[in-house]
Amino acid sequence: MVREDRRLRLAGYDVYRFGGHELIDKVASSRMLNTFFDALLERHWP
Fold it and tell me: Are 9 and 15 in contact (CB under 8 A)?
């Protein structure tokens, strides 16, 4: 996985990893992912 992260970064991609434990609780993970993607969109399309 680390090798693939390096390959993607060298190709110009940002890599964001999520651990499985972050996705166990549906409500908490939905909130976390919405917050993350809102921030990501704000970063790239202010």
Answer: yes
